[in-house]
Amino acid sequence: MKSLTEHELFTTKLNVEYTQQLSLGEKLADKLADFGGSWRFIGIFGAILFLWFLVNTTFLLEKPFDPYPYIFLNLVLSCLAAIQAPVIMMSQNRQEEKDRIRAEYDYKVNLKPELEIRNSHEKLDHLLVHQWQRLLEIQKIQTELIEELSQKRAAS
Fold first, then answer.
1. Claim: this prediction has a pTM higher than 0.70
2. HEC letters along 20-32
3. What is the span of the domain harbouring residue 51?
4. Per-residue confidence of the chain (156 residues) as pLDDT tens digits?
5. How many other CB atoms are there within 10 angstroms of residue 66's CB atom?
6. Number of domains present in the structure of the chain
7. Residue 29 CB-density burial (10 A; 0-12 exposed, 13-18 middle, 19+ buried)
8. 146 assigned to some structural domain
9. How far is residue 70's CA from residue 22's CA, in Å, rounded to a whole number?
């Protein structure tokens, strides 16, 4: 309502304002989540796994550092998943918060034109009523003039 009465614009750059408020840890979590959910990560991760298998099965036949059941690899993957899951969840929570802020902003942006349209309709209705009253006054004056003319004709 305040923006309506003061005729101020209601636009803002939400993403810029929101990212300026993030802490270093939050920015880092977002970047890690972006990288962890990309094809680049999948490609690099696939290459590392392939190298792990290749090194442990062919080059280190006599004494591999992680023999066939790959227990150490399983531990590394579990640790990676244990770290990656909360980071992704933190990023999703921030994205959800950003979506809530955007939804609230969209509501306000949509509410303002609705209120302006209602206000315009009210003004138009007021003008129409005023015009109808004015037309009735003019019609009354015309009727009186016609009666005067008819009385003058009847008298002459």
1. no
2. HCCCHHHHHHHHH
3. 2-121
4. 566 566 665 556 666 667 778 888 888 888 888 888 889 999 999 999 999 888 888 877 778 888 888 899 999 999 999 998 898 888 888 889 889 988 888 888 888 788 888 889 999 999 999 999 999 999 999 999 999 999 988 887
5. 18
6. 1
7. buried
8. no
9. 40
